[in-house]
Amino acid sequence: MNDAIAAALPEFLQRQRWFGGKGRAIQRVELADDVALNGGEIAPERGVRLVMARVVYAEGSPELYAVPLESSQESGGAVAIRDASTTSEFWRALLARAWEPSAASGRAGSRLVGWCSGQHAELLSRPSEPWGAIETIRSEQSNSAAIMDGRVIVKLFRRLEPGINPEIEIGRYLAERRRFSHTAALVGAVEYLPAEGPAAAVATIHEFLPGARVAWEHALDRYAEFAGRCRGRGPRRTEDAPELVGAFLDEAALLGRRTAELHLALVGEPNDEAFAPAPLTAAYQKSLADAVRAQAVRALGGLRGRLPTLAAPLRADAEQLLARWERIGDNSSPDAGGCALARRLSRLEEATIQAARIRGHGDYHLGQVLRHQDDFVIIDFEGEPLRSLEERRQKHSPLRDVAGMIRSLDYAAHAGARRVHGGETRPDAAEPRFWSQATSAAFLEAYRAQASGAAFLPRSEAEVRLLLDLHLVEKAFYELEYELNNRPDWVEIPLRGLRELAGD
């Protein structure tokens, strides 16, 4: 039956929102392991299991995915497989079996092993106790999740990598060594232990915060209030921001302070290899410049290929951007040095910046923050899922996180304008631009005030601006590439952002 399941998996994987290999040609899928989850409330004949599927591509490295499956043999011998992560039985079994390692064994001596924090053990039932109501979360995520009995939220990692998972590592550090209170408490985790080699995180278990709301949705509601105040008014001036933006201006400042407090908490002691600050060396500055340049080249190449499909106004913006920045990757071209981005990259490579690199969030935006009890709670320290664990555990300037949130505020402005104005922003986009600039300024000013004097901030205003601008540009080019491949009707948002960041 395993061969039949492996044969059915390629088509099954392509239909899943969490599968990251949709743009790659699958050569084959192998069942690397099959961890039994039967028992308890699950009838053995239903065949609920956690399959470890190794996806081998025509090009590039293979990937290992955790795939909860219900399988059954139909008439004629065909095997039908279904995603078991939509069932409450799977989530109950995952935790129950993780706390009984001998009952959660794979085909070749592997096991699922769970652990929980002594501080929060009361949030987890003993394995023999059934969980109450279980709500599976349906969203466009690279992982799957469920809220269990209104007590904890369990996140199942889909793409597995052996090694230290940053969400677990940072979660434990903030809880046990820094007592950072503005994050959901890490209650425990489930790990996959192969017969040989290091463990891989399968799931995390966090405290569930009733009444908490994703900050992205909160920001969109605040934008709608702002748009209502703007109706019938003349030109908006900077000094009008407190009246027009309203409460969200103070909330953006609070988010800036909480972000700075997070970064201050992540500054470890010199003898702590994982969290000790590292210098912003010339080699790092060159690698950052190379990364920004490579991201720009990929995104601009994709934009050039999609030009004929863009609406006329967007095509004009795209052509203008290409004319300015398309030669950025050609260091031998005399024209490459004529654009603002090339000049910024040259300054970065030539500068001696006195600042530290630290661990950060790694994928920071409004979707990774909760609005809870008139405050903000920062969640999801996994980092960008498509990057390797090694990359996600690297130390960077925290201005990388700051740039991510500033770009997210800009996205919220344009998404909010689309929602308010029937799916499209106004032609000049003056309204969302005003909200974006006002909220970003409040966020950044509060962040810098809270982090003032920290070793991770350059002392020179010019150096702060240089690093921040380059991280903003890198993020906007990443957004452009993403939207071209996934949401072409959203391309205008990163295009507008890049036009404003051009500085020519």
Give the secondary structure arrangement, pairings included:
Blueprint (H helix, E strand, L loop, with lengths): L1 H13 L11 E11 L11 E10 L5 E11 L5 E5 L4 H11 L12 E6 L17 E4 L6 E5 L3 E5 L2 E2 L5 H13 L7 E8 L6 E8 L5 E2 H16 L10 H5 L1 H19 L12 E2 L2 H25 L5 H14 L14 H11 L5 E2 L11 E4 L2 E4 L10 H4 L6 H22 L9 H21 L10 H26 L5 H10 L3
Antiparallel strand pairs: 1-2, 2-3, 3-4, 3-9, 5-10, 6-7, 7-8, 8-11, 10-11, 12-15, 13-14, 15-16
Helix pairs in contact: 4-11, 6-12, 7-8, 7-9, 7-13, 8-14, 9-13, 11-12, 11-13, 13-14
Spell out the key features of this protein.
3 domains; 504 residues; alpha+beta
Question: Please, could you describe this protein's structure?
Answer:
About 1% of the residues have low confidence. The protein is an alpha+beta fold. The strands form four sheets. Strands 5-10-11-8-7-6 form a six-stranded antiparallel sheet, with helices on both faces. Strands 1, 2, 3, 4 and 9 form a five-stranded antiparallel sheet that branches.
Q: Termini distance?
A: 62 Å
Overall geometry: globular
Taken in chain order, the helices and strands follow as HEEEEHEEEEEHEEEHHHEHHHEEEHHHHH
Specify the structural class.
alpha+beta
- As residue ranges, the low-confidence spans are 39-45
CATH class of the largest domain: Alpha Beta
User: What's the CATH architecture name of the largest domain?
Assistant: Alpha-Beta Complex
Name the CATH superfamily assignment of the largest domain.
Answer: Aminoglycoside phosphotransferase (APH), C-terminal lobe
Largest sheet: 6 strands, antiparallel
